[in-house]
């Protein structure tokens, strides 16, 4: 694949309003103009990245229109703003990528996210509306459709208010919401995987939920969107090494093959992360909440493995033959086989009080062996989605007869 320079990215892959001179974003000069005035958006406030839907704890914007210093929770690659279009008044989430050093140009992370999102179109994947070069900073701005909520905030809301939920004596998230969220999430994953894209960083804060703003099309109300494709990659069959691209997935949602040092991995890592999100929706707390070792490189995350083993039991060669070649299983100073006895595991039933069908689906998504782990498409065909309450197009509004019976999605234009 030919190398794409910043100016070719602007011309060929992005709906750019302002095109920089070939090869470089121009450096910042003395007394630059207001960085927001050249953009086709009004920028009312900064939001905590990557959660574009947190209405509280909004840092203020100074009178000059530039952002205040970042608070804890800063995004990995830049700032995220809530903006309105100057032309239409529509709301957007604006992700800002700043150039690290003079002459660096557009970051590879931004280019990767643009390339993938410009090629994908699905109701359950966040839509990239446009991209803009801001010469005065310099920086690249990506405009996304605005989602008011994310799963992190939804889980936190239900956890904080569970004692006041008279309609739900167990204090948990209503089953309709859980089922609809998982249906949307798996539909988005299925589309990505069919097009050879692996996300690699699925977690509740990267799964957005559209609100019911009158400015948003009714067909999009309550629709779940997979977001933040900065770590996403194209995978191939047979699998090629992806570990050289760096450590992937927040540790609580990291698949066991990654924890054990696999160099070749597949879309199965996304399904494992989705299974962890599934459990968190049901219990309102992370299923495998390990303590991460903050050491450079792909080191053995022993505590995270312990958390998984205590629930699922110890993996074995009979059910997962590839264990014999995983680095942290075979050769390390804290050998998994020696240090950890062959626990039977307490089982998902002890960790999650839920119907058998839900536990069965979750166990298939959390299969140790990535080769036998359920795919997103297989998970969508599971019987759990065909039992009441059935999933629908809007997470917030249960509808009678929302299942259309064709196996490809509930009725409703979120899938139109």
Please describe the structure with a list of short key phrases separated by commas or semicolons.
single chain, 416 residues, alpha+beta, Phosphorylase Kinase, domain 1, Transferase(Phosphotransferase), domain 1, five-stranded antiparallel β-sheet, disordered N terminus
Structural account:
It holds the Pfam family Pkinase. One of its GO terms (cellular component) is mediator complex. This is Cyclin dependent kinase. Residues 66-385 form the Protein kinase domain. It catalyses: [DNA-directed RNA polymerase] + ATP = phospho-[DNA-directed RNA polymerase] + ADP + H(+); L-seryl-[protein] + ATP = O-phospho-L-seryl-[protein] + ADP + H(+); L-threonyl-[protein] + ATP = O-phospho-L-threonyl-[protein] + ADP + H(+). This protein has 416 residues and is α+β, with helices and mostly antiparallel strands. The chain has two domains: 6-145, Phosphorylase Kinase, domain 1 (2-Layer Sandwich), CATH 3.30.200; 149-415, Transferase(Phosphotransferase) domain 1 (Transferase(Phosphotransferase), domain 1, Orthogonal Bundle), CATH 1.10.510. The chain has twelve helices and ten strands. It has helices at residues 6-13, 108-119, 151-160, 175-194, 256-259, 268-283, 302-312, 327-330, 336-339, 348-351, 356-365, 376-380; strands spanning 41-47, 79-85, 91-98, 128-134, 139-145, 149-150, 197-198, 207-209, 224-226, 233-234. A five-stranded antiparallel β-sheet has the order 1-2-3-5-4, with helices on one face. A hairpin with a 4-residue loop joins strand 4 and strand 5 (139-145). The protein is globular. The two termini are 33 Å apart.
């Amino acid at each position: 694949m030919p190398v794409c320079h910043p100016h070719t990215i602007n011309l060929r892959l992005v709906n750019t309003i302002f095109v920089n001179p070939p090869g470089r974003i121009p450096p910042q000069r003395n007394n630059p103009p207001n960085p927001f005035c050249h953009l086709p958006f009004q920028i009312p406030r900064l939001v905590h990245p990557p959660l574009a839907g947190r209405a509280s704890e909004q840092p203020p914007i100074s009178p000059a229109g530039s952002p205040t210093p970042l608070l804890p929770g800063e995004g990995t690659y830049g700032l995220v703003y809530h903006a309105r279009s100057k032309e239409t008044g529509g709301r957007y989430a604006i992700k800002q990528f700043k150039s690290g050093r003079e002459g660096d140009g557009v970051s590879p992370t931004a280019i990767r996210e643009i390339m993938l999102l410009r090629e994908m179109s699905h109701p359950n994947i966040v839509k990239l509306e446009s991209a803009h070069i801001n010469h005065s900073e310099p920086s690249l701005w990506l405009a996304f459709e605005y989602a008011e909520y994310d799963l992190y905030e939804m889980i936190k809301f239900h956890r904080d208010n569970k004692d006041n939920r008279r309609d739900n004596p167990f204090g948990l998230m209503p089953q309709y919401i859980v089922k609809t969220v998982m249906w949307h999430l798996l539909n988005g994953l299925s589309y990505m995987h069919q097009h050879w894209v692996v996300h690699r960083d699925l977690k509740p804060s990267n799964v957005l939920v559209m609100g019911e703003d009158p400015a948003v099309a009714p067909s999009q109300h309550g629709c779940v969107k997979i977001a933040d494709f900065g770590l996403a990659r194209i995978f191939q069959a047979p699998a090629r090494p992806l570990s050289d691209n760096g450590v992937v997935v927040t540790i609580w949602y990291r698949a066991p093959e990654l924890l054990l040092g696999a160099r070749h991995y597949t879309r199965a890592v996304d399904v494992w992360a989705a299974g962890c999100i599934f459990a968190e929706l049901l219990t309102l707390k992370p299923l495998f909440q390990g303590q991460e070792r903050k050491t450079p490189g792909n080191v053995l995350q022993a505590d995270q493995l312990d958390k998984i083993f205590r629930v699922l039991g110890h993996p074995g060669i009979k059910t997962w033959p590839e264990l014999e070649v995983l680095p942290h299983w075979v050769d390390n100073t804290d050998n998994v086989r020696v240090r950890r006895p062959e626990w039977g595991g307490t089982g998902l039933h002890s960790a999650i009080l839920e119907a058998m069908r839900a536990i069965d689906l979750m166990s298939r998504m959390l299969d140790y062996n990535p080769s036998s782990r359920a795919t997103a498409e297989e998970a969508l065909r599971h019987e759990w989605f065909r039992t009441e309450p059935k999933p629908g197009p809007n997470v917030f509004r249960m509808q009678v007869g929302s299942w259309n019976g064709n196996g490809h999605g509930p009725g409703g234009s979120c899938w139109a």
